[in-house]
Structures are given as structure tokens and as C-alpha cells.
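Try it yourself: sequence plus zinc ion, in.
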Amino acid sequence: MNNHASFSPSALAEKASEIVSNVRELSALGWTPATSSNFSMRLDSRHVAITSSGKDKGRLKSEDIMVVDLEGHAVATSLKPSAETLLHTQLYKHSPGIGCVLHTHSRVQTVASRLYAKAGKIRLEGYELLKAFRGNETHETAIDVPVFPNSQDMISLAGKVQRLLYSGPIWGYLIDGHGLYAWGQDMAEARRHLEAFEFLFACELDLRRLGAN
Ligand SMILES: [Zn+2]
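Structure, out:
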């Protein structure tokens, strides 16, 4: 544990309250079952506020939000970071423009990840809601959402994600049988991306059920 806190306590208080109110809403949608899922926001160029391990997200409190550095080490706290912290911090390290990372385990995300694991991606094409993703101006486009094999080895999983980050603008990925990572420049954008992914995966699953794709 590093006791040399050099982040702003007022920035932490502000981000913690933003995380808590948003996470409670996402939890109410059923996207964070059984204490799963984790959420973070950038505090400054070296620190991230993130949910600590194993908390019920529907009852999340500001005290459950801890600070880690960009290597994922706890800063000035005895709280334990989630095993998946590295998947958050690699995104903040990758781009100073990333300010918020949301990781959920909804049923739609989980089923979609299983169905498309073999293909390694889900293609989303022709939907009006593709305009929800930053940089997309039209529905006449397609994005491929990667599906990675699940792993408890975060260094290996982060390595696979890292290669993808250099392949072009991307706002999320799925992990097989696990859930979704989505991000953006701030909470509002990350949440818009998360909700768009959820909606579009649900459409793809409905189409599959109806035999249309
Ligand atoms: Zn997870």
C-alpha cells in the first residue's frame, strides 16, 4: 500500500459521488448481479477512482470507492482493488482522453459474448444507434465489437486488449461468458456507449432468436 496520497480529496469526493449515483442506476437495471462489475473515473494524470472489490453495487457508498495509481496499486487506503483493476488502468494509461470506464455483467452482454465467442467479434451494422458512439455521424457504418476469451490471468487478458487499442478508435469489448467493458471521455459518454452496446446486443440476440441472422 502506498500511503503517499497526492491526489485531490475534493476531486475524489466528487468522482465518488458521480460513480455511486450512476452505478446504483445501472445496478437497478440488473446489470451488476451478485457483487460483480466494477467502475472507475480518472482523478488526474496519475490516479483513478475505482469501486473496491466485492461490494454490492446496488448499495454502493462513497466509502466503497478507492484510489489506485495507473499500475493498479492501491493509494492511501486499506481497501482492496478488484482483480480486474488492470483492465481499467490500461485504458487510462493508453489515452489521456479516457476519463471513465464502466464494466458490467448484464444477461444480454453475457449471452451475446457466448454466442459470438467463436467468431471473436459481433458486427453491429446499419443501426441508427451507432451514432451514439463518439465519431460516428451516420447509421451507414459498421463496428466490430471484439469478444475475448475469459481469463483469470489479467496480465494476459490486458495484453490482448492492448493490441486492440492500437487498431483504431474503439469504445468497448466483450469477454466470453463474463461481460462488457465500455469507456468514454467522461461518465456521460461512457454511459451512452454502455447503453448503446447493451441495446444493440439485445437487438442482435432478438434477430438471432427470430432466425433473421
Ligand atoms: Zn468482471
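One thing you can check immediately is this: The two ends are 50 Å apart (CA to CA).
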